[in-house]
């Protein structure tokens, strides 16, 4: 029995009719990674549930985040004059990141191999992917940090939002077209960052202090690649695919208003969190950047998961996420100075957001497991 029934009866009926449809045109994925994943999946036991593979991969990213939080909580370890992160941590981060990427690639293949593909598996996979964004970005940030040759914490906050919106674009496309267009940037970034972690372990973070050309630093390349990829590839292609469906009368929703409705909650979340960043009395983003990023990334994942549920069940997206209402109160309390201790307020709100998101995720998994009469983490038949 689910803790709470977040998925409506109409959505459950939609899940019954769901058929997976995706397009992957990335040469790296098609010619390198898929053959590699096909090779790896053969070594997995047939009793191993695909969702367990998905969850294990996600936990490798969480482990990376926790490791770097221990050695570089405030993102200063890579700056000159500070005690740097030990080399073995970067080796572990590179291995764990690639393992997470590999497991994310083989979970679907294991599902088809064991004839256990279900809508729950796809929802679980993409739901964890939405939360993984923050763990991935925060861990990568420790390579450069916030020192003189690094990236400012406020700048990284906006870069994080570029990554988050790039992620949601794919699911917004599917919400409108019925087809998931897998972004090219994902595979390239995962392989590249895994290698960068390993290179950092060998050459040290001091290497990234040096300019590539004239005064153009590696941190500038890092920032440029993320923003350029999002605004010159991901965003234009997403808009093109949705407008193409609109002009061809194959758009799944009745108007452009309905088509763009999924952006309302993410945009409001961005506005609220940015107001907190800009008007914080204690400059909270400078004091507690890691926790602030975690709060934003988790709240975003919660909003995105609800879009994915609507997208997969072919139902109308909620205009507003309920999580935004208490967040509005929290932000007002913070920026008006009513809260005597803004850091404590942030910690309490972050804990509340994480618990709310876990409650939502567990409830949805339990509800769909019961609906499809399956176990989430086992291939044994459910006799109930």
TrEMBL record:
Record GO biological process: phosphatidylethanolamine biosynthetic process
Cofactor: Mn(2+); Mg(2+)
Entry GO CC: endoplasmic reticulum membrane; Golgi apparatus
Chemical reaction(s) catalysed: 1-O-alkyl-2-acyl-sn-glycerol + CDP-ethanolamine = a 1-O-alkyl-2-acyl-sn-glycero-3-phosphoethanolamine + CMP + H(+); CDP-ethanolamine + a 1,2-diacyl-sn-glycerol = a 1,2-diacyl-sn-glycero-3-phosphoethanolamine + CMP + H(+)
E.C. code: 2.7.8.1
Transmembrane parts of this sequence: 52-73, 85-103, 123-144, 150-170, 221-243, 255-279, 291-309, 321-340, 346-365
Family annotation (InterPro entries): CDP-OH_P_trans (IPR000462), CDP-OH_PTrfase_TM_dom (IPR043130), CDP_ALCOHOL_P_TRANSF_CS (IPR048254), CHOPT (IPR014472)
Top-level class of the enzyme under EC nomenclature: transferase
Primary residence: endoplasmic reticulum
Molecular function GO terms recorded: ethanolaminephosphotransferase activity; metal ion binding
Keywords linked to the UniProt accession: Acetylation, Endoplasmic reticulum, Lipid biosynthesis, Lipid metabolism, Magnesium, Manganese, Membrane, Metal-binding, Phospholipid biosynthesis, Phospholipid metabolism, Transferase, Transmembrane, Transmembrane helix
Subcellular location: Endoplasmic reticulum membrane
Pathway assigned to this chain's UniProt record: Phospholipid metabolism; phosphatidylethanolamine biosynthesis; phosphatidylethanolamine from ethanolamine: step 3/3; Lipid metabolism
Pfam family, one: CDP-OH_P_transf
Membrane topology field: Multi-pass membrane protein
Function: Ethanolaminephosphotransferase that catalyzes the transfer of phosphoethanolamine (PE) from CDP-ethanolamine to lipid acceptors, the final step in the synthesis of PE via the 'Kennedy' pathway. PE is the second most abundant phospholipid of membranes in mammals and is involved in various membrane-related cellular processes. The enzyme is critical for the synthesis of several PE species and also catalyzes the synthesis of plasmanyl-PE, a lipid required for proper myelination and neurodevelopment, from 1-alkyl-2-acylglycerol.
Similarity-based family: Belongs to the CDP-alcohol phosphatidyltransferase class-I family.
Protein name: Ethanolaminephosphotransferase 1
Lineage of origin: Eukaryota, Metazoa, Chordata, Craniata, Vertebrata
